[in-house]
Request: fold
Amino acid sequence: MKVLLSIFHIVVCVALMGAVLLQQRKTGGFSGIFGGGTQADASGGQWQRFTTLTKLSVVLCAIFMATSLVLVFRAG
Reply:
């Protein structure tokens, strides 16, 4: 079970790296680091405006965190 979960974790990790690297940059330089190009919208429609690749990154990140926690607690 732990071996299969570890293999799944590695596959998710590689897929997450690919999804992040394939995304388009929205701002240039260091302005994006300090919040100089993004504004949060409080209307609740933010998820619909995300691209498919961004949604995939969010889902893969959640799966990555979940499998990380499961692997840590199963090893201990």
About this structure: The chain has a mean pLDDT of 83. The longest helix spans residues 52-75.
